[in-house]
Design a protein that fits this description.
By secondary structure, the protein is α/β, with parallel strands linked by helices. The chain has a single domain, classed as Alpha-Beta Barrel (TIM Barrel), CATH 3.20.20.80. It has nine helices and ten strands. A six-stranded parallel beta sheet has the order 3-4-5-6-7-8. It is globular and about 50 Å long.
């Protein structure tokens, strides 16, 4: 069914916490890196260039920080419980990427759900009590509720009248013209651009003074439209360079104008999983970091395709790293990995993965 991958990815997200899959800021720990509980407050952190030439998130003393975290993808922030946070802290996690959803924040245009936002703040309170920081992730899957998924509200969805046909293979929903039209309008329509900024500012205004906030992930796994004559890679390069980069800069500028203390994280599409470098341009701000996901494309395809065979490819990690680090070599800034994992850890070779 169309939501099969959504359910599997959600289960895998819980497994990330349980299995302590690490979210690391750098490929290896630099000399003098701080590991374990992170030395706050985040307002005193900055970016710094190490002796190796790479850029790190550093504490107030200039020490590079090594991050270990997990994802909590949920429509109900109350499920980020004290028990879960205590277990995460006991196992050495220092931060959580917590999903939030525009459609729950602003279910009808210009009408915000304060009860939902209060739950987000309460989750931050619980995280603070356990010494865990939080990155708030504006999450979307297949754009959002207009297509039977969760993310961007129906009122902010424009399909040009094209019907949506649910696909058995989850990823193929993104290839539906209705979904691609919705992304196109989000990036290009001035009123939707303004609405996207406003919902983020509403969130930031509510949480910017909270000591548990590490930063803001602008949009989960963005996609775009294939225009006439474009193949997948041509479209991706254009979307990244001409639509995602300006969107990320707009949002970064707006957020940083009211909160320059916390980090802004932005995601490239998952092309590095295919060995393809991102075409994102430079995004600037007081505190910015690129925030890619790492999924082996062959494992993903096998997982969510009926009859697919999951297999371990030891060359994947070098291929992914070579592709993603082309961005930080050209645009020096910190990098954290926002998601990685597998839906079926018991499959052959996945212990090695």
């Amino acid at each position: 069914m169309a939501d099969s991958r959504f359910s599997m990815r959600r289960a895998a997200t819980v497994a990330v916490l349980a299995a302590l899959l690490a979210v690391v800021a750098v490929p290896s720990s630099p000399a003098g890196a701080v590991q374990g509980p992170l030395p706050g407050p985040v307002a005193g952190w900055h970016t710094a260039t190490g002796t190796d030439g790479r850029v790190y998130i550093a504490d107030a003393q200039g020490r590079a920080l090594q991050f270990h975290g997990g994802n909590h993808k949920t429509e109900d922030p109350d499920t980020l419980t004290d028990d879960l946070l205590a277990a995460a802290a006991d196992r050495g996690l220092d931060h959580i990427r917590l999903a939030i959803y525009w459609e729950h924040l602003e279910p009808t245009q210009d009408s915000y759900d304060q009860a939902y936002l209060d739950k987000v703040v309460a989750a931050l309170d619980r995280a603070e009590a356990h010494g865990i920081l939080v990155i708030l992730d504006m999450h979307q899957d297949v754009y959002g509720e207009a297509f039977g998924f969760v993310g961007i509200p129906a009122w902010a969805t424009r399909t040009d009248g094209v019907p949506f046909e649910p696909q058995e293979v989850w990823l193929q929903n993104y290839l539906q013209p209705a979904v691609q039209n919705a992304f196109e309008h989000l990036y290009e329509d001035a009123d939707l651009r303004a609405e996207q900024i406003e919902v983020w500012l509403h969130v930031v205004d509510a949480v910017k003074d909270h000591p548990a906030v590490l930063g803001y992930d602008l949009l989960n796994e963005p996609f775009g439209k294939f225009r006439d004559g474009e193949n997948f890679f041509d479209a991706a390069a254009r979307v990244e360079a001409t639509q995602l980069t300006p969107m990320y800069q707009r949002l970064t500028d707006a957020i940083s104008a009211v909160d320059a203390d916390h980090f802004v994280f932005f995601e490239p599409p998952n092309l590095a999983s295919l060995g393809v470098p991102t075409s994102l341009g430079l995004v600037t701000g007081p505190k910015v970091a690129i925030y890619p996901h790492m999924y082996d494309a062959s494992i993903e395809a096998a997982t969510y395709t009926p009859g697919g065979v999951i297999a371990y490819n030891p060359d994947f990690f070098a291929t992914w790293a070579n592709a993603i680090t082309t961005y930080t070599e050209t645009n020096p800034m910190p990098m954290l990995v926002g998601e990685w994992g597998i839906a079926h850890p018991d499959a052959g070779g996945m212990d090695q993965f």
